[in-house]
Batch of 2 targets.
Target 1
Amino acid sequence: MTDRSAPIGVFDSGVGGLTVLRALQSELSGEHFIYLGDTARLPYGTKDPDTVVRYALQAGQSLIERGVKALIVACNTASAVAMPAMAQHYRGLPLIGVVHPGADAAVAATRSGQIAVIGTEATVRGGAYQRAILARRPDARVTARACQLFVALAEEGWTEGAIARAVAERYLGPLFGAEARERHESADTLVLGCTHFPMLRDTIRAVIGTEVAIVDSAAITAATARTLLRERGLINGVAHEVGARPLQLLATDGAARFAAIGSRFLGRPIEAREVELVDL
Amino acid sequence: MTDRSAPIGVFDSGVGGLTVLRALQSELSGEHFIYLGDTARLPYGTKDPDTVVRYALQAGQSLIERGVKALIVACNTASAVAMPAMAQHYRGLPLIGVVHPGADAAVAATRSGQIAVIGTEATVRGGAYQRAILARRPDARVTARACQLFVALAEEGWTEGAIARAVAERYLGPLFGAEARERHESADTLVLGCTHFPMLRDTIRAVIGTEVAIVDSAAITAATARTLLRERGLINGVAHEVGARPLQLLATDGAARFAAIGSRFLGRPIEAREVELVDL
């Protein structure tokens, strides 16, 4: 029997997954979380898939040794390439990535079947969201665009204001602007396929207007995790006091940077001394 | 006796060093170059110094096995931490990093002693430029600022226009704006301490005005290399035809991305098939 009071493990290549953790804390307020950011080896997106599988299995193993009752893969690259291997190694453990919940939500949200996916260069090139959407709705038309500067803007904390707005207009104008609408190529659904991008949600919303559905894979992943844990009877019944959610933060390098940037992503101050450095 | 017709090796963690290669090709038009970008393991800046030393020695060894007569370390991080180990391993080989030539030029250019250094987060935090400048001029006042978005702008090719200008104003305004001048803290010299930043030189110049000296470490490193090779009698006498400069491009991963982004940095189209993948 799995102990329902056991922690939930969340794994990412860096700090981006803290947006997923934040959504999870909001959905599952009675849970204890252990977050592991493999900051020493980021980015995963440019690495060989075999390497990413190896890293993901090491990270998963490290969280399992800490007694987690479920594992959330908040990293897009690992979600795209390492889920089958992880499922095989951790048989029976609830395991949730960010790509499939995002694709489910996109297909549920679209009316026209025209879906836009934005992510990092590596995520867009890898095509995992595109494949997952087409597997669910073969007549969907998926446009994908890498929005690399959104990552830098989110890490710099420049998520609002004139610069963020201008960058969003430049990336998203071709997907949602007047010309795309005239060609009937304007998507009615936008998937935020990078854990950094929810940080820019308000700016993106201002640029694309209120008609387009935004699929925030952090929020959807958290909702999916809650459903799965409930099905398995693994929800921890005792709600913690607000502000007292138990959380362990692990990183493989750079506690100070993790704390500085992570504070914005998690939405509350993180002290460098809260971040435990681990070897994988 | 070293063969003066042997190639010059240029090493970087990625494509940024191609700005240094471009400057070298311009200074040393009769030379053959081998450029090695360790794209599989970038970024170096967030890695442990011992790891960077190990990587730099592997890259250096790989270039030496290809018969280079000199080695240019175009990577700021490797220049800051690996030069002593490389000098010890490659005794007698002309070896030039980007940090010391940049510091020399900054100290030569400044009148007031107030010098600003911009670089990546890792370069600024590491403090190598700051230390090198203070070692040369102990009364210098050095302000350093990480300009992380410049890297993303350079890689995206958004080096001119409203967005680049607004980003440059936001980063550089506090260093060179009216308030800094009123406090007499405005620098008279700006060191571009990242190999990506020469791509934004025109935009940076437009923001800081014509009074501030810009030290472009790519250009200074190339000039330093020419001087050192001349002193050692290693300049290759036979100038190649313009456009026929022999160049070998090596990378440890991602030939297509190297070619796409590298083309902008090198200032001429690179085909993915020109990029040879190597293991270090």
Note: The interface with chain A takes residues 39-40, 42, 46-48, 121, 148-149, 151-153, 155-156, 158, 162-163, 166-167, 170, 253-254, 257 of chain B (CB under 8 Å).
Target 2
Amino acid sequence: MSTNLTAVLDHIDADFDHSLERLFKLLRIKSISADPAFAGDCKAAADYLAGDIASLGVKAEVRPTGGHPAIVAKPNGKADGARPHVLFYGHYDVQPVDPVELWHSPPFEPVVTDHADGRKIIVARGAQDDKGQLMTFVEACRAWVAVTGSLPVDVTFLIEGEEEVGSKHLVSFLENNRNDLKADFALVCDTSMWDPNTPAITTALRGLVYDEVRITAANRDLHSGLFGGAAQNPIRVLTRILGGLHDDNGRVTIPGFYDGVKDLPPDILAQWKALDFTPESFLKPIGLSLPAGEKDRLLIEQVFSRPTCDINGIFGGYTAEGSKTVIASHATAKISFRLVGGQDPDKIRAAFRDFVKARVPKDCRADFIDHSGAPAVSLDWNMKPLAAAKRALTEEWGREAQLIGSGGSIPVVGDFKRVLGLDSVLVGFGLDDDNIHSPNEKYDLKSFQKGIRSWARILAALAESPKA
Amino acid sequence: MSTNLTAVLDHIDADFDHSLERLFKLLRIKSISADPAFAGDCKAAADYLAGDIASLGVKAEVRPTGGHPAIVAKPNGKADGARPHVLFYGHYDVQPVDPVELWHSPPFEPVVTDHADGRKIIVARGAQDDKGQLMTFVEACRAWVAVTGSLPVDVTFLIEGEEEVGSKHLVSFLENNRNDLKADFALVCDTSMWDPNTPAITTALRGLVYDEVRITAANRDLHSGLFGGAAQNPIRVLTRILGGLHDDNGRVTIPGFYDGVKDLPPDILAQWKALDFTPESFLKPIGLSLPAGEKDRLLIEQVFSRPTCDINGIFGGYTAEGSKTVIASHATAKISFRLVGGQDPDKIRAAFRDFVKARVPKDCRADFIDHSGAPAVSLDWNMKPLAAAKRALTEEWGREAQLIGSGGSIPVVGDFKRVLGLDSVLVGFGLDDDNIHSPNEKYDLKSFQKGIRSWARILAALAESPKA
């Protein structure tokens, strides 16, 4: 290990309280991208982060998109091409906080507290996803600059503010800012470890199609006593359609849904089988015990390599306390599909809509809202920066870093490849119990500190490895 | 027609503006029984009405129940038994007003306005159900007292405040106040006309079972990317169960649901077939065209004489603007069943719950809330006061009054028979397009005015007819 890296790692540990303070400043900003009421907070988060990143020897700018702004920060002076140039990606926007009454502390007042099992954790909306994660990289860069006066590789930053709402404006932003985003490859910090002690690099990501359907029946709410039985009930129509999306074996019933989906290569399947991925380890912590997916698939396949369909929200009629004998005029549901390689998002969306329309009674109407879509991504397991990152992670954690799949979608990875021609290395320090998208989101203090140290090592390893 | 009645009818027309003012005072009170936040308003409505009724020569009291209070008003002095004694029933509570943004004017600021087709209408929550309806009777009594100094029959009033939440405390109230509620028969004003020009007396009422089910899966909300496919989704579970409540022919699939349900006698069926009750007349005004009930039944049977199942509300997961890739921890639905003669409410509720429990995955849970239940009621078409009421209505409207069924439930009718031994005569002036339980509830000005005149005639007819 180089003298420089040793000094950088020592600096990270010595300065850790300040790293935490800086993270807390970012966590206090209510940058909820889904809700227009928080647009000002999203802008404030972008401004704050751009100011912070500017101290790393890069030229940071907040740039408009069709929605919430993005931050682009380029190396000062010209990157001379002699050393590796990485594009780092993260997102400053966070999920909504509802139901807020389930939070043990206010979601935008970060605290360090004790987890039930004794782990120290940071609790706040965005503590992990993605403010905590992106700050591991920023703090690693800060330590390199503090100790050596500069970064060991050229770094361009791209921090967006619409990841949690499907990165709607990112592709056009990449196209319009192509020249400023040139790099050799991308680093993305928005994924998880294998377990609390085992680091991981994610090399397969499921895609996503997110759609909303609204069934309209009568032209107004009706009294269920006067009209019940004779008038179509849009909740009945909706539940009948959604209730038919899976068969008794947990397979999605939409015609053509599995077109192009391939079985795992036998060697990967064998590797996954060897992992401790059981209902006991994966479902018990969340209070469940039975895999809900396709009955003829391993649990790990259900999560990493098989496409799924979930209803993320449903609403209709009277839902307050007590009872109301009403037949609603309309009912809505939000439905998302996790896609794997071979599935075309546009075809899946069309097939879903056809499935719904074919089942709507003739005197009712189905309307749809397209919330987002992205194909699945499979990364090259043999790309060179991946080996450097794997070595650095293994050294920091004292355990072999795993190459894994992820059930979640990070559409930017596909966009980077398509628009910028860049491969991505996905390293993150999240854990399955981080409650991202839920009340009481947390990030292990250990994830934050060793995450910073991991990136410091990865930057050193990339600087030493031949250009990809 | 007696001189007295002529004078009373003239007085009603001359005093109609004041009748409207008094109704408006009652409509301005936000007596929503379903929402505990409005308990004070319910009390205020009871106090106001008791004060108003006291001016009719009766002794009116607001009496506590286990929930919102009820008004009991008895004849001053002893009813001597020489003339008919009626128990009049109405309710001062109203339905919630959501979605309030769909109201064209604030729900508790009554206005008289023009309907699209030119009819004058009173618009407010409760304009019809049941404040407008009950005030037709109160105003008829007021006119008799104003013109003749007294009522033509003995009248006891019972006005309750929990009809819209299932009249939960009414049975025990009837039991505890049995002595003060003695009468020869009951008059109930909470039903509809056959059409805007044809009066009706309702002689068959469907019963009601109202239940709420909550499906719980994981112990917290989950990220659908990380857990989708492997973890049970309570919305998927709920929609699958509810989507299976009806078969392709519109029949309810709960085992035993139709036990005891009888076909109509051929003569009644023939009479109903002769009525103009078609998709064109009944469904088109609400924007629909196809009967949604059992395919082998007439539309009028689906509404009047067949049991039904409706989902009145459903909620789960993320339902705000935009998208959130969440798997909810739980999902809920409110389900109601309209019952007909022969169906036992307790058995139906148990059968529904068994149906749900048999379909819940082993690692999920189903919890239930009992919102209310009441059996169906069939009244004696040959009871004597019914003939008097039919004659009076026919005279007022110039069209033969129809004896009809009603899809809605008025549990009090069964309770009156069981607890007090009283038959009921159900007369009301509602119309199908009154939007009761919906935004922009209205009552035709004609319904209000001719409703008052109808009751004035009915009171006279009852006074002249031999005691039942």
Note: The mean pLDDT of chain B is 93.
